[in-house]
Amino acid sequence: MTRPLPDPGHELFAPFWAGTLEGRVLVQRCDTCATPRWPVRPICPQCHAEGFSWHELPDRGVLHTWTVVWHRTIEELPPPYAVGIVEVGGVRVVGGVVDCPFDQLRVGMRLRPVFQAVTPEVTLVQWAPASPGRATEHQKARAAEEEK
Ligand SMILES: [Zn+2]
After folding, report:
1. What is the Cα–Cα distance from 98 to 83, expressed in whole angstroms?
2. Residue 3's pLDDT is what?
3. How far apart are CA 48 and CA 28, in angstroms?
4. CA-to-CA distance for 125 and 19, rounded, in angstroms?
5. By Cβ atoms counted within 10 A, which residue in 19, 45, 88, 118 is the most buried?
6. How many structural domains compose the chain?
7. Overall pTM > 0.90
């Protein structure tokens, strides 16, 4: 049995899911005032403009808060697992926090996105402690680009 998955063809979220397939976390950014929007929404919460472009988030965020799920609430997701709110690029995103013992989770710790291909169409984003030796191919390419 597979876990519940998002609809990668959803009208509003399709560009986000296309980004995760490439190892990129994309959010909307207002074309009028540049405020990032997450979750996806039809108008800017700051200036109420509709226009937006998709914008890649930085590859480092900060753990704002977290919880550890100890009770099974989704049949296909066996506990325990950590879920965090990550501040990144002016938005807060919710995601699993992986590769870190629960007793080492700290508010303010630096995290990086990690990408978990679940099906050919769906790649989920989770967050792991930032560590330069474990960047994704996309992050390596971007770092190399920034060094030029
Ligand atoms: Zn705006």
Report:
1. 9
2. 80
3. 13
4. 10
5. 88
6. 1
7. no
Kindly give the distance from the C-alpha atom of residue 91 to the centroid of ligand 1, in angstroms, as a whole number.
Answer: 14
- pLDDT tens-digit series, residues 43-94: 999 999 999 999 999 999 999 999 999 999 889 889 999 999 999 999 999 9
Residue 2 domain-assigned (yes or no): no
CA 35 – ligand 1 centroid, Å: 5
Identify the domain containing residue 140 by its residue range.
14-147
Asked if omega into 80 is within 30° of 0 (cis), the reply is yes
Report yes or no on 8 lying in a domain. no
Distance of CA 65 to the CA centre of its chain: 15
Cis peptide before 39 (omega within 30 of 0): yes
